[in-house]
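Ticket reopened. Same input as before:
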Amino acid sequence: MVSGGTDGIGRALGLAYLRRGEQVAIIGRNTAKGDSFLAEADMVGAAGRAHVITADLSLVAGARAAIAAVRERFDRVDALVLGARHVSSHRQVTAEGFELTFALYYLSRFLLSHELADLLDAAPHPVVANVSGPGETRGDPRWDDLNLARGYTLTAALSHGGRLNDLLAVGWGMRHPMARTRYVLVHPGVVATSFSGTYDPRTAAVIDQLRSTGAPVAEAIQPIARLLDDPPVAPVSAWAQGSSLPLTRDAFDPAAARRLYDITMELLQGEK
Ligand SMILES: NC(=O)c1ccc[n+]([C@@H]2O[C@H](COP(=O)([O-])OP(=O)(O)OC[C@H]3O[C@@H](n4cnc5c(N)ncnc54)[C@H](OP(=O)(O)O)[C@@H]3O)[C@@H](O)[C@H]2O)c1
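Engineering reply: fixed in the latest deploy. New output:
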């Protein structure tokens, strides 16, 4: 199961596992790209094993619809790859009132991780791979401004989202202490992907540069695939391009993880 599987790292992982004979379901919002994934699956002889769930994961309602569709179609999830992301030079607010990066990069991952926990635990060696930027940002999240109403920049939104995902992983481990599922945070390095985003001209030039200098996707997915194939022993772990990162208290603080879980659940109560 791959969120953001219509492009970049998610798409490449999806196709790689289809080539290996697995069932792969991707979640994405773009129907043309979903069709292209199915067409490519056909070409590699994987017709019938490729599935597309269309949903806008920046909406809590969209994430919940995707989760319902997964539950309707599958009775287990062996691996959940969280890769959907869209960044923006300007602060955007979803129809539900959340800042876009917070909603897509963090909230949708929170929902998919927690609400598919039982389907994951039904698999023999289950793993969640949250593809993000572990350990890059330390210190407190903006507890009184999770929606980044003040001082928004693209970089601040991304690093804050990465911070929240680090705490999501720690909190997930605490909420599911008996789970067999391994929760893995993965930093892929700079990879030449679509960099789904809405950019001002100056940032667009930087992104073009990253697109032309980043590692090829086929190369970047290898360390992620190794973690999916052979999940680490530790219930929660963080990795950067194949190397393990220490879960230091300043970045992966359990008290902050618990606080974030509680705040997130309160926010989601309002979206029932
Ligand atoms: N590429 C890098 O250098 C890099 C570096 C560090 C971390 N990462 C992490 O790696 C992960 C994958 O990155 P990538 O570069 O492969 O991504 P990407 O090429 O930008 O693709 C992002 C995916 O997310 C989907 N998406 C965007 N908005 C969505 C929405 N509202 N609902 C559902 N799906 C949506 C995109 O669909 P559309 O095609 O419709 O936009 C696309 O399939 C990200 O989480 C990122 O944080 C990447």
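The chain has one domain: 2-269. The longest strand covers residues 182-187. Please confirm and we'll close it.
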